[in-house]
Amino acid sequence: MSKPIKFCLSLFLVTSLFLSGCGSSSSSETRGKADEKVLNVFNWSEYLPDSVIQQFEEETGIKVNYTTFSSNEEMYAKLNSGNLGYDIAVPTLFFIEMLVKEGMLEKINKENIPNLKHLNPDFTGTFADPNDEYSVPYLWGSVVIAVNKELVKKDIKGYEDLFDPEFKNSLVMPEDNRAAIGAMLAILDYPINSTDEKQIEEAGELLKKIKPNIKAFDGDNPKGLLITGEAKAGIMYSAEAALAKRSNPNIEIIFPEEASFLWQDNFVIPKGAPHKENAEKFIDFILRPEMSKEISESYPYGNPNNEAVKLLSEEIQQEMTIPQDFFERSEYARDVGEATLLYDRIWTEVKQ
């Protein structure tokens, strides 16, 4: 990302964070000392069971301060404002790509993480970190459609079907500009990583057309509106849809016929992390097959831990499964460079 883009994105998002704040169970905005029995984790909401954190604390005596964010942009803005004491963050690959380029991450000491041996090599050596110097895979997934079939009789096959007036003020979409605009790019048969100004503008106009159907943009708990019936359908991350179906059997998960947005979230250690060794100890703990299994049972995203997957029930494995043809027509989001400003501008216009 060029310096002007970095400055504009950071200024906008830091101002937003100052006004609204982020979800937090306890503050991690203290630097502390390297030998403290403390770990400051910055993660997505509803992404790590409390039981796993408690087991780590009991075993190690390390106190975990856990703070959440609802978007990659929010996470980036916090880290870019100068590390406020975070030891671990969990960004998506295309943001890791930016963080590496901008020198905002610590190199990870792999000798402190022997459980790396359990990882499926398909999820290591990514475009964001080819030599696995700065990141460790956590979970992965896709963007899907979830529909309450008790409220919707129409056959839904893809994103384009959600423009039907039947869905007026009854859709939920992710608080994620790349996922939302990416869905519109897919309808237009454009790459979801497009940097073409005309294509992105067209996708933005399409997103504005569907806005009357959107009840909420929700990055924390999109499944909630679907479970209660306040929303008839939604575009959401795969495990959110699976969890919605667990709560309400009337919910059907649809892998859109268009291309879709794939993502992978990795652990990283921000530059200047005060408790780096504690962070590496935590990552190693999470990679224990029994711990990773527990995470997938609560949040059934794709799991890159081979040994953990073997421990999961067939039911959970089915919830995590993405059809091969859907995977092949979909794309991982990438850093779009200077086009980031265009995505941000369109997103701001849509949200107004």
Automatic annotation (TrEMBL):
Cited InterPro entries: SBP, Sperm_putr-bd
Keyword annotations from UniProtKB, A to Z: Periplasm, Signal, Transport
Segment forming the signal sequence: 1-19
Main subcellular localisation: periplasm
Keyword Membrane belongs to the record: no
Location of the protein in the cell: Periplasm
PANTHER family: SPERMIDINE/PUTRESCINE-BINDING PERIPLASMIC PROTEIN, SPERMIDINE_PUTRESCINE-BINDING PERIPLASMIC PROTEIN
Record protein name field: Spermidine/putrescine-binding protein
